[in-house]
Amino acid sequence: MFANFLKYKLFIIRRERVVSVVWFVSLTGFALLLSVMYPGMFPTKESLYSLTATLTTPSMLAMLGPVYGTDAMTTAIAMAQQCLLWFGIAAIVMNIFFVNRHTRVDEELGRHEMLASLPVGRLTGSASTLVSAFALDMIIAVVIALLTLAVNVEGTTVAGAFCYGLSIGMQGFVFAAITLLMAQLFSTAHGSLGFAFGLMGASYIVRAIGDMKGSDLSLISPLGLGLRVEAFYTNAFAPIVILLTESVVIGAIAMLVNSRRDVGAGVFAARKGRDGASAFMRSPLGLCRRLVQRGFITWAIAMFVLGSSYGSVIGQLDSFVEGNDMIKQVLQGSGAASLAEGFLPMLSGIMAMIITVPVIGVFTRLRTEEKRGRLEQIYACAVPRGKMFASITLIAVVETVVLTGLTALGLYSASASTNILSFEAIAASGFSHIPAILVFAGLTAFLVGVAPKFVGLVWALFGYSFISLYFSRLFDMPDWAVRISPYGNVPQIPIEELAAAPLAILSAIAVALGIVGYVSYRRRDIAQ
User: Which member of 8, 77, 261, 328 has the greatest number of CB atoms within 10 A?
Assistant: First the structure.
């Protein structure tokens, strides 16, 4: 039995020799880059304490988590405070995809049934997947810790480095166990993936609310618990132990459920469809809408709730400026009339980046259906490829507009009582990012049509855009480097006036990429 378990695990390792290596290099490489660059960004104690003052605003507490170590601030503490949450989220995303593709996806495609026909135990697949995820998380955690020790920025200690790395790994592993449980509960890969990401979003919101209020509510969230290690300060390993315990318990529950359910089925059976489809559902547009419907509803609720959670703290921002000369200087430099106006462009940019994820997913879903051989059955009938591609494009555009509108509505509804920001300002700031989002949609459409095997490259530009948006001021990036990202060309409304030229150029780029993708998709071989 152990020999079969080991063979199954080696099989998973072989399948992951590209994807997991890319994740490993990305996470550890970025951790090394930040460790090298942080000493130059904050060379003096004064700059570190100025940063600490910025991090204590309600908006930054919601975004990054609680501030600690103000009595003994070091470069290592500042780095951990600003980066630990984002590394944790990246590790969570990696684990969700990892577990889902080796469990529910394999069942959906019939691979699991083929492997189960061999002399392996019923739980071998799930156990091997969970152990492999744990091994990957631990390797990443230890390498990040060792690289941090090697760079040795001010305040680095062995305990702090391993707290930092293990917190990242354990946050990811909790969601590996959660995803394994979701794979047992839901009968489709899309359903288990959607609920796993939904729980990640809920975890972020719960943590943000708890950290803004300074309550223990954030401890319910794996993200909030992971931040309580206070790396390079108190170096508390207890949260890591709790996260590991939670992972083991959730994983054991998932195994128990797995042992009692039928292969290919979930605890919650898929809802039966109608006996006959409507005329709309028999059209390419109806099919494409059906493919993305559940994900769209989930994202719509998530964006409204996320907008509301940030809108609820806007009323507290201006009161923080009183007595804080550093914040006043920042506002004067940005040209913002209030802290809320200065915060809105950054918030709109972050929300736009979140919206970009499901929009990219719309086009990648078309590629997924192609890889699984389902589109061949459709195109064998009298269904033009161009109509399918145009339908997916229309849905991506509509989804972009609707999600942006719901985010703005949520932000305004929670902040309307303060009367600090008008709905026009919030909407203008949010909708001005639509051309940038559509550039990503156009690039994905281009790759699906021209080079479908390289669709994943769109995430490289997305990652760079996140770095330029979030770290451009910290890294003092030149203007041209910021403008490589589509978001770097969006006017900072309401600080800046609405400029039509850059938005028109972004829109033209998106349209051009989409047209090339459309023409190429109509001409190329399917699954080639």
Answer: 77
Q: Which among 317, 256, 286, 311 has a CA at the least distance from the CA of 430?
A: 311
A 10 A CB-CB count for 331 gives 19
Residues 372, 452: contact at Cβ < 8 Å? Answer: no
Q: Evaluate whether residue 360 is within a structural domain.
A: yes
Domain count, the chain: 2
Considering the domain architecture, whether residues 258 and 301 belong to the same structural domain is answered as no
- Inside any domain, residue 274: no
Residues 6+ apart with CB under 8 A from 174: 92, 222, 243, 246, 247, 250
For residues 60 and 205, state if they share a domain. Answer: yes
Structural domain containing residue 254? 1-267
**Residue 220 sits in the same domain as residue 97:** yes
Q: Model's pTM, two decimal places?
A: 0.76
Tokens at 78, concatenated: 């500042």
Structure tokens at 47: 């700059």
CA-CA distances (angstroms) from residue 186 to 257, 266, 467? 11, 5, 35
User: Using one digit for the tens of pLDDT, what is the confidence trace for 379-408?
Assistant: 877 778 888 889 999 999 999 999 999 998
Tell me, yes or no, whether 344 and 260 share the same domain: no
User: Does the residue 273 lie in any domain?
Assistant: no
Q: Are 160 and 78 in contact, with CB atoms under 8 Å apart?
A: no
Name the DSSP letter for residue 268. Answer: B
pLDDT in tens, 193-232: 888 888 888 888 888 888 877 778 888 999 999 999 988 8
Residue that finishes a domain, picked among 267, 290, 305: 267
Do 263 and 213 lie in a common domain? yes
Nearest to 497 by CA among 441, 405, 425: 425
DSSP secondary structure string, 471-528? HHHHHT--HHHHHTSGGGGS--TTTS---HHHHHHHHHHHHHHHHHHHHHHHHSPTT-
